[in-house]
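Model: You mentioned two targets. I'll fold them one after the other.
Researcher: Yes, keep them separate.
Model: Target one:
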Amino acid sequence: MQVCFFSAQYLPTIGGVERYTYNLAKRLIAAGHQVLVVTSLKPGLAQRETDPSGIRILRVPCYLAMNGRFPFPYPGALKELEKESIDFAVIQTRFYPLSFDASWFCRKKKIPAIVVD
């Protein structure tokens, strides 16, 4: 099963949601699942990478408001996910624009999803 996490912030940004996402993703991989984290692209970071734990990361282009703490994905930023086979999605926190985009994407693709707030 491939699980996709949508999180406006992710490592190397440090915070509770970022650590929660990382640790849960590691546990899912240890249980034999595939994990994709979709997050915001920040200067100096790769758009796509796989970390040493096997977590695939896709960073989508964004307008970075409030010193990067409140990113707004570019229109169509999730289009790259069209080719992914996602079985389940976890949307981290509800008030980020990426979370709204993720919920619409999951609804359109009929991907079961939960929002963790």
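Model: Target two:
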Amino acid sequence: MARRKQKHYIVEQVPIVDTSNQGKGIGRKDDFVVFVDKAVPGDLVDVKVTGKVKKVPMGVIEKMIQPSEDRVEATCEHFGDCGGCKIQNLSYEKQLFYKEKQVTDALQRIGHLEIGESRAIVGCDSPFNYRNKVEFTFSNREWVPADQLAKGEKIDWNGALGFHVARFYDKVIEIKECHLHLPIINEIRNEVGRFTLANEMAYYDIREHTGYFRNLLFRNSEGSDELAMVVLVNEEDPTLVKQLFAHLEPMFPQITSYMWIVNTKYNDSYSELEPQVWKGPSFITEHLGEWKFRVSPTSFFQTNTTQAKRLYDIVRDFVGEKTQTIYDLYCGAGSIGIYLNDLAEKIVGVEYVESSVQDAYANCKLNGLEHLSFYAGNLKDILSESFVEKEGRPNVIVTDPPRAGMDAPVVAQLLKIEAPRIVYVSCNPATQARDIALLAEKYDVKIIQPVDMFPQTSHVENVALLELR
């Protein structure tokens, strides 16, 4: 083995034995462990170590000695450069295997939890073209892959409209075709890029906080064939974005809504900002089973509609028979609560984004439901003893937090409330394991059910049923 004191060094014949939750192959040789870009379990490779993250060596494949039998040709030409589909070169069957393993490893190794029943992961029938939401970034600095530079071809350094490069917040790669969303979105995005550059419309400079166009967002409805296009701009003047919309409208009748959002902040978050409508409704209407949902640009809604229904069916199963009161925490636009509405006399949702709560009430009206109520604000402030006294102690708590998991004060309050059942939906098994380890003071993990919501990526959803001892 090479000397490890060197900054860059080669380690020969490293077997890749697993995948990480960031989609890297995990190589192990004797006592040496390295995380390797684009490597899949079963590969035997020479690794070039390029650095460390939290004292763990990171590397790239220097030489492929023996490829894994589970390795497949990546569909996307941008694979490995954009920050998205990290495991597209792994067969889908094995993607499911390692995602299921990721869930159980997190709960058992991080949470040190005993699991009553581990159910097999629910895979996706369509591992491509499944996303109902996608967001692109405008950048005045285009990032070009090294192999393209090496060809010596002429490059127009005019800016990029695409995805962030893996590991770099300030670098954007021009995307010609993405396979995770509707194909028509590729055509629209490419025309947006052509038109804006041809007319010398300024792209955003993340370092200088200058330029006009910042982000391009699409949301589509699987149930009603609606497609909303939203452009985020860095200035109050809507002249340029309206020019863009007027250019696109006769070309793409598939677009049913045109909106823009003014974001003059230094960060890309926009959940609290108000969309402005050029034409069409200010939302799309999605369907899950018999229920309809109004989804605005700033609202949370599961990005894989087909798998969302399967996910919510699992939640229904874990909730069980009809009960008195359900709390729906981190409720977004109220989708889970509405899907469960016939399982409780009363459902109370809490969500920190005000516009999502507005959508939740609109969704209840849309479905003729009156026994659901919603609160907007930080859960650690809202979920107090007085709140429980007012709304009633829940028989079941359903919680679906963001990737960061639940705040410690929220977990502490759940322990005080002592609901007989907690159904914990998570898109991050590591933070879910951390939270459940705290809840294990009073709760047992009865069942876990992984669901693949995001094929080709390393992300996995998991539903855990906890019961009070």
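Researcher: Noted. Anything on target two?
Model: The mean pLDDT is 93.
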